[in-house]
């Protein structure tokens, strides 16, 4: 077992969550893991919890590599923080599969990461997708994306913030 990464001092502290043994239905739900554990995930989880993140982008290649079906409206997932603790349940409200060149500004802004242009969003996401962790997760050290790469654009809503998460 690996230790959780140290919290980012520039982010608000996410609360310590209690163990949730009385919520067995959470175990039946798939996990929503935004980015990789550490400061990027902490920022994204905080954005989900404060309502500024209502969309996310995945790659068809990632779903195929993991053998996972693409999300569909009504699909629910448990959002987990960097330590793997559940913090919220989200429900997919819309899914589109488009080439990266067709990602629109509304989707980029609704990712809640502060992007004000699609070009800025794209550059940030390419750094992530071309990063060592993503390439290792895909088992392809030379993985790259281009305008034609199929992207999974999801919109979601928070169904519930789990106990111990809110103020």
TrEMBL record:
Q: Which Pfam families has this protein been placed in?
A: ASCH
Tell me which CDD domains the record gives.
ASCH_Ef3133_like
Give positions of region: Disordered: 1-25
Domain of life per record: Bacteria
Q: Bias regions of kind Low complexity — which residues?
A: 13-25
Q: Where is the ASCH domain?
A: 34-160
Comp. bias regions, Pro residues: 1-12
This chain's protein is named ASCH domain-containing protein
């Amino acid at each position: 077992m690996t230790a959780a990464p140290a919290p980012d001092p520039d982010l608000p502290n996410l609360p310590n969550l209690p163990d949730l043994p009385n919520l067995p239905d959470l175990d039946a739900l798939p996990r929503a893991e935004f980015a990789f554990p550490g400061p990027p995930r902490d920022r994204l989880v905080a954005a989900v919890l404060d309502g500024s993140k209502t969309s996310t982008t995945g790659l068809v290649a990632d779903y195929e590599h993991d053998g996972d079906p693409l999300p569909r409206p009504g699909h629910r997932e448990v959002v987990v923080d960097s330590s793997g603790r559940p913090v919220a349940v989200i429900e997919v409200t819309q899914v589109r599969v488009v080439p990266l060149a067709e990602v629109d500004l509304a989707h980029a802004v609704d990712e809640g990461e502060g992007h004000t242009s699609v070009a800025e969003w794209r550059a940030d996401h390419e750094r992530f997708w071309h990063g060592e962790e993503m390439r290792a997760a895909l088992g392809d050290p030379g993985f790259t994306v281009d305008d034609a790469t199929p992207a999974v654009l999801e919109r979601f809503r928070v169904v519930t913030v789990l106990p111990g998460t809110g103020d």
